[in-house]
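Incident log, entry 3
Record: Amine oxidase (837 residues)
Problem: checksum mismatch between cached and fresh output.
Input:
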Amino acid sequence: MIDVSLGSALSRTRTYGMAPMSAKHNGAHTDTSPEIQPCPGRVPETFTMASSKDGSSSDGPRRCTQLFALKVTAFVSCVLCVLFIAVIIALAVIKLERPTCAPGYSVIPRDLENPRVFDGLTPREYISARDYLLNVKSLNLVPFSQASINSSYIYMIDHLMPLKDTVLTFLQGISKQPERTAKAIIIRGDMTPPRVEEYIVGPLPYPTYHKLVTNPSFTKSRIPYSAKPVDKIEYDVLYSMLYNISVDLYPLMYGSYKLSYHNCTKGVDCLLWWDIAPRGRVSGERKTWFWSFRDVEGFYLHPLGLEIQIDHESTNVKEWKVTKIVYNGQQFYEVDDLVTRYGGVNLLRKINYEPLGAKEYLYSSYNRRGKSEMPDPLQGPKLVEPDGRRYQVDGQHVSYMHWDFDFKMRPSTGLQVFDVRFQEERIAYEISLQDAVVFYSGYGPVQGTSMYFDASWMMGATCNELVPGVDCPETAVFLDADFLTNTQDPWRIQNSVCIFENTGNIPLRRHYTNFPGGYSGYAGLVDYHLIVRTITNIWNYDYIFDYIFHQNGAVQVRVSATGYVQATYALYGERKFGYPIYNDVVANIHQHLFNYKVDLDINGVQNSYATLDVSTHRTEVAWSKGVHKTEMVFEKNIQENELDAGPGQLNNTKPKYDVILNMDATSKFKSERGYRILNHGISKFILQENEATKAANWAKYPLAVTKYHDFEDTSSSIYAQNDPWDPLLDFDKFIQNNDSIVNTDIVAWVTMGLLHIPHTEDVPSTTTAGSQVTFYLLPFNYFTECPSVSSPNTVKITPKREGGINLNTHGTSFESTCVQKSNGPDKYDGRLHDVEL
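Fresh output:
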């Protein structure tokens, strides 16, 4: 195309420069344009030019050659222009396509052959402890895969932390790393009476001994069988019973709901059975209520009004039996009786549900619905790390700015952090969740007895794989957790812990100095902080657990609740217990409570607990005689013993600060160095008079302080759920011995809570906005100034006299020259994985 058009243009240019040509007219139009012959060829006669004697043009070949050269030159020029433009465009595109951001500081995988003192057990250690116990003939253990209700088997193996003094001696470089040991929970179903036993096994990974132990903090020398968690072996038998019961109840199930359990099509007409706890009304009982749901997404919001109680206290499954059935608010004691009455005429009140259509299913689902706020879906803001991550992960050790700490996952309670240091000084030896409870109230047999102690449901071992871009930012580092709980072999939940730096979207501190008509300066620092997160799902609720490390030396502990509410059949939904959230569905009032262990070590372990109690008094104004004012004052009170620090503070209605301090370590300005505990999640324990909440006596105290004992390592236990009436571990016993807590190693126990009266906006599920609780550990005269002043991310601005500003970013660039590597939900797997050695 280019060659032809340019050649034609050149030909026309030469024609316009010629003399007029003669033409013969024969009555028709004659084209006077010259006939252009391709080169080489005869020069047209119509050209007026010098001719040779024989009449032919002597310049013809030369001119034809020149024309051809012009065409070639034009073509080459155009090609070069096109290539030049293409190069310019390519360079522009390359410049616009910025490189991927660098990864930043290193992430070093855990060394499974050389576990550190705080590390959880490795797969090799799990297996060595398990195999060692299975070979102890006196224990008469059978492998979990072959176990039955009346046999002895291993339920769980977990890392047993060494004594604190031993660990501290090691950390100080005085002694070698303590030997690693495991604690094994063994179900002794073949003994009379049956029981649960706990054994220490060590040293790992080559065990040579085992020892039966009883925690001195337990209220009983023997762990009752009725208090054990329900495991897979027990559930298998229970659900086998429910299958057979459902066969007998088929006429009722299909007639009432058009659903069944034993011969249904998944996603079409199936019914589900789920259990609640505690399992009975008095200590020693093991009677579990199961209730039914429509098998759809968000089934928690589709209760059917059919509930069955099974007695499974005996280790002889032939003695297990149905003790009660409730259908549409009517109670029966035998399955046959209910079936007979249902088949009769006017012998009971029947339920007649119509099959739900797609729209009725939708209300409990996460499917998008409603008018969209955006014509086209647009991505939301994302985190970017322009210089890569600014924290380092080495196995289970994390370093960030001035922070250093270790973490691990405990199967019962989840994420723990240890040896928390700031500027190389230990702030806390341990910060860890102890239990999370949910206490319901209601009329029906299920809602009226639902009191959940989630440590018994294994909050750590039921944690989830985290979804990049939703559960954690795409910039996060994701780590795995291994467990050997309720199974034969160790297994892994991949990406169950995430670590990431966040901006907080707020300044950590800032100030603008203004005066009439101008300003003299601005200074500020973004609240960059590190978050370590895990999320667990217990039944209907999802809990997001965060440990947050700020640049000012503060530690923040936060819990966010989401997931589905526990709903009941509307017949039981008296308005004093809950509001309707859909047709025939009511969600009941409940309270969440979370207890944390906070073992602060301020300049060593010799610490005390002080309250700074605020009051008012009237005084004369010093500079105005006869004028009086009311002012605030505070008084420091050292709490002498555990009763003063726990029950005594429940009656202290004064505003106050709670401070853990070291009276022998003072700051530059002669104040005791300390850390303040600021609880923003205080919630009065509402059901403390209920018999089923005795296992949560810790919930009475927003803050309790006790003397450190290695055997008082947890405030709750995995046995709380199934014997809360006479708990094996009673937190009140920690306080009632009334140890001195002055100048000694002390532990703070912090309780946060949420009261929840569900409403229609909890459909499909509760949102984290408004469902978060948090407490802080804040430096209090610990430093001579805020330690964040060392941050190179501080921004300082002053005005120039001639206009403009002086900007000092202390060497930090605010320009992002890279693109964050994408790591979205498509990377999610969701499966549990076997651990390979």
